[in-house]
Amino acid sequence: MKLKVLLASVFLALGLSANAQIVIKLSHVVATDTPKGQASEFFAKRAGELTKGKVKVDVYANSQLYKDKEEMEALQMGAVQMLAPSLAKFGPLGVKEFEVFDFPFLFDNTADLHKITQGPVGASLLAKLEPKGVKGLAFWDNGFKSFSANTPLKNVADYKGKKFRIQSSKVLEEQTRALGGIPQVMAFSEVYQALQTGVVDGTENPISNLYSQKMHEVQKHLTLTEHGYLGYAVIVNKKFWDGLPADIRGQLEQAMKEATALANSVAKKDNDDALDGVKKAGKTTVYVPTKEERMALKKVLVPVHAKMVDRVGKELLEAIYKDTGFDPKKL
Ligand code: LMR
């Protein structure tokens, strides 16, 4: 009896009745047929199954609820409970360390990347969110970014003077400048139109984002530079999360574990399929850079690490170099 009263008061404090369904709004900015879109839908399904309907996850894809910057504010205010922003978008929370993932050419492959996102460095980064009222649950992959534009991008000189849309990251600003380009920070939902109207000349993204937003219809050239990584941290409002009944939180953690495995296993295929889609659409010339061309790009972009190290902290960058074996001096 005592337990019942206690439970009832906990539920009351949460603004719920003992039988009420808990609703989690999960907002994100990309299309459903992307790694993040699929993993979000899968999480929603498994959360419903594992909690036997006690939790309902409503997924709002394609910026239909919030755009990039608004998302973070909405989460902190509790207007939305869960997000999966790209790692470039944690600046507004005051956690600049996440921008280390924007360092160009930092990860040679997914195995190296996972040493960080699925290891102790990743866990320590997620822990930095807690004082901001945010809890980090997982890292989800998208993949490696490539540059596109309306003119060919083969040599470093081809980037000069071009306006490139980037996410709101100081590291990406510096990356664009290192190439002689002009960075333009813009919300994801506005990129298609900006490319179409010529407000910007080009952009960077994994192909799944380029294709699902139809950017290839307004970009004549795509060069498979794979010069940097784009992935996500799934985050929740900490007060909401900590206030959940422990058994339900455990079931949601299990659903998240499964969704993370799905995200990280479908990401490569989604991007490969998207590239096929771009090729089939026939509107964009897809160019694979030669080894020399990619190395020339790397030589210009790796110095961005030294320039931006103060933003993320020397210790963090060195811990990543150590775990992945990356040596900026050996190019
Ligand atoms: C972008 O803004 O380009 C990406 O962060 C979008 C996303 O969430 O994948």
Could you tell me how far the N terminus lies from the C terminus, measured between alpha carbons in angstroms? 69 Å
Described by the principal axes of the CA atoms, the overall outline is globular
Q: H/E order of the elements?
A: HEHEHEHHEEHEHEHEHHEHHH
The tally of helices reads: 13
CATH architecture: 3-Layer(aba) Sandwich
The helix content is 40-55%
Note the main sheet.
Answer: 9 strands, mixed
CATH top level label: Alpha Beta
The percentage of residues in β strands lies in: 15-25%
Low-confidence stretches: none
Oligomer: single chain
Number of DSSP strands? 9
Radius of gyration from the alpha-carbon trace, in angstroms: 21 Å
What would you note in describing this structure?
Helix 2 packs antiparallel against helix 10 and helix 6 runs antiparallel to helix 12. It is built from 13 helices and nine strands. It has 331 residues and is an alpha/beta fold. Strands 1, 2, 3, 4, 5, 6, 7, 8 and 9 form a nine-stranded mixed β-sheet that branches. The protein has one domain: 3-Layer(aba) Sandwich (D-Maltodextrin-Binding Protein, domain 2), CATH 3.40.190.170. Helix 2 links the parallel strand 1 and strand 2. (2S)-2-hydroxybutanedioic acid binds next to loops. (2S)-2-hydroxybutanedioic acid (LMR) binds next to loops.
